[in-house]
Amino acid sequence: VSDAAIGATGGAVARMLVEKRVVVCCGAGGVGKTTVSASLALAAARAGRRVLVVTIDPSKRLAETLGVQRNAPAPVSLPADRLAAAGVTEGTLSAWMLDPKLVSDRVVNTFARTPEEAERLLDNRMYRDITSMIAGMQEYTAVEALHGFVEDGLYDLVILDTPPSRDALRFLDAPDRVSMFLDRRIFNLFMPGEGSIIRRMATQLVEKVMDVAFGEQTRRDLQQFLELFGGVLDHLNRNQHEMRAFFAQPDIGFLLVTSPAREALAEAEFFARKTRDELKMHLCGYVLNRSLAAQAGFAMPDAEALPEDADPALRTGLSRLAGLARVERSQVAGHLALAAELDIRAGDGFAWVLPMLGTGASTLSDLVHLADVLVADDPPGTAPPTEEPS
Amino acid sequence: VHFLDRRVLLISGKGGVGRTTVTVALARAAARAGKRTLVCEIANPEGGPSAIGRLLGARSIGPEPAPIERNLDACHLWARTGHQGFLQSVLPSRTLVRAALRSKAVSKFLTAAPSFHEMGIFHHLLSLLQAEEGGRLRHELVVLDMPATGHTLALTGLPDILLRLMPGGPIAALLEAGQAILNDPEQGAAWVVTLPEQLPVTEAIELLAGLEETRMPAGGVLLNRMPSDPFTADERAAVEGWLDGTDGVFGEVAFRRIEAADEALARLHAAVSTPVLVLPEVPGLDPAAGLVDAFDAHMTGEGEP
């Protein structure tokens, strides 16, 4: 919803970028979420904020633009000359590629009961092979890392680019629906030991099944792993409630990134329901990426208007281009309608249209261009006509 | 060998590339060609909505193959179904199987423990591959729509990881039986669906490289939504020059897309040694139907080199 009162300070996105401490970008894969996250970060840095963007899996070129590398232990700041070239004068921009293994190891080191246990766990072959496959673990580590960065106080704003899956919000779900492996009650069944007779019987049954199915040695290995992991697990479970409270704070916002494709819109709706209706978190709005809506007002290519001595190939070429143009013009109307519909769905939030820059939009100048569009007073294609009779 | 002459085809690809549409079209084309075909996807959650079912106009898809049209069945892969089958095959007594299946503890463990979910799906897939009816294979070809998430390689890489953890016992036997089919280039192949654009092509090349590490034979690339090019070379050069000096006209995005698609296709050919099947962009509401014709053309026209 455009807000005339914002005026000179830019529109709803610009306001979000100076008001929030954390912006979480959600959406389907392939909609350009990482590019949007990076553009938002750049826009905030240009507004003078100290910004960190945490990405999951940037394309090679975007990674180069942001200066991030795999397995980097800490965020990397964009060098001053590149910042200056991108129009950042007071703010800073750092980027970090989330490394789930690294964060998971850190969690183990911090929360294992003793340093020796931490070391044994990190050496355990089950830990090495299996933690990456625990459902929700990558998402959990993303939250853990994000929380750490916010607590550090080194940044005014952290932008999180989430993994492109519905699991991306799973860590915030009601505890019983989170990966059940992280549920202590289930976990305990595999630990030999005391408890009620019913629990002991359940444990015995599990052991019996596992011995037959996997062999006794594997079952023992797994039990040892679980025993070591127990301390860490308790921490994870405790933290889940704190994390949920953390994400419900008013200065932490969710942003839904979508393309005009039907599947991407369905995915955005899923996230909207989840974040706003179920988890009661603050939904800032939608970014409609790769939209033709910004082309409203374009002209049709016209072979008739060419001078008489024009190249015949250009003449026939333009008439063929007109065929493509007619399709495109009809899509513009559809995209405009979609932007209007998203604006309504966003309620108090915004629906912001970003132009199609080509799918490889990942250079610094691409990001600068998108950042400009993001902090404008109104999204492109939706500004009220200026020549209206008064 | 023709690209459909396999027991199992895994169709993978990132979100938004039309992977499910291509999967369904490919399965339909195989069924039309007379192959008893099963198309399946991994249920998420079990009993949940089915993208394949929506495209096929089927009301609901469950773990049992259900007839869709001549020679074509569809089903969901359920970890639960796989776990049940597995327990039945390894536990010594029916009483123990019943107790285990009734036990919430066991079922929760199987759902929750890392990689056991994938193992259940793996077992279900294997049982579908081995199912017989009237003395012959129930389905000659199984086409699986792989999940889009980062775990694309989890199912194909899983056997090796688990075999490292438990080199002996019934699970190892199960995994080896599955690998004997999946990893045999004459029986199994993984295809990567992608779009003729820069980033998706890069990702497809990376996915193919990842497949090599899992020992899953790579079938090739299905390049989806290739835009048709109405221009001659001369016209293209002339229009290109004209667009460079003109701002704000419709059609430029589509024109640039054709150029980018050609570049992406050339890059793909240069980077991969596997076949690349080009599927044209199909306008209209039911792209799956149009793609069937494209696959038919590929099937009658060309085998694999």
Description:
Chain A has 390 residues and is an alpha/beta fold. Helix content of chain A is 50%, strand content 12%. Chain A has 14 helices and 8 strands. In chain A, helix 2 packs across helix 14 and helix 5 packs across helix 11. Chain A is elongated and about 95 Å long. Chain B has 305 residues and is of the alpha/beta class. Chain B is elongated, with a radius of gyration of 22 Å. Chain B has an 8-stranded mixed β-sheet with strand order 3-4-2-7-1-8-9-10, with helices on both faces. Chain B has a two-stranded antiparallel ribbon with strand order 5-6.
What attributes does this structure have?
heterodimer; A: about 400 residues; alpha/beta; eight-stranded mixed β-sheet; 14 helices; disordered N terminus; disordered C terminus; B: about 300 residues; two-stranded antiparallel ribbon; about 50% helix
**Class based on secondary structure composition and strand pairing of chain A:** alpha/beta
Rg of chain A, alpha carbons: 26 Å
Largest sheet of chain A: 8 strands, mixed
Strand order in the largest sheet of chain B: 3-4-2-7-1-8-9-10
Q: Please give the number of β-strands of chain A.
A: 8
**Percentage of helical residues of chain A?**
40-55%
Q: State the share of residues found in helices of chain B, binned by percent.
A: 40-55%
Sheet of most strands of chain B: 8 strands, mixed
What is the averaged pLDDT score of chain B?
85
- Give the overall form of chain B: elongated
- The overall pLDDT average of chain A reads 80
Query: With helices defined by DSSP (H or I, 4 residues minimum), what is the helix count of chain A?
Result: 14
User: What letter string, H or E per element, gives the SSE order of chain B?
Assistant: EHEHEEHHHHEEEHHEHEHHEH
Q: What gap, in angstroms, lies between the N and C termini of chain A? A: 23 Å
C-alpha geometry of chain A:
elongated
Query: What is the N-to-C succession of helices and strands of chain A?
Result: HEHEHEHEHHHHEHHHEHEHEH
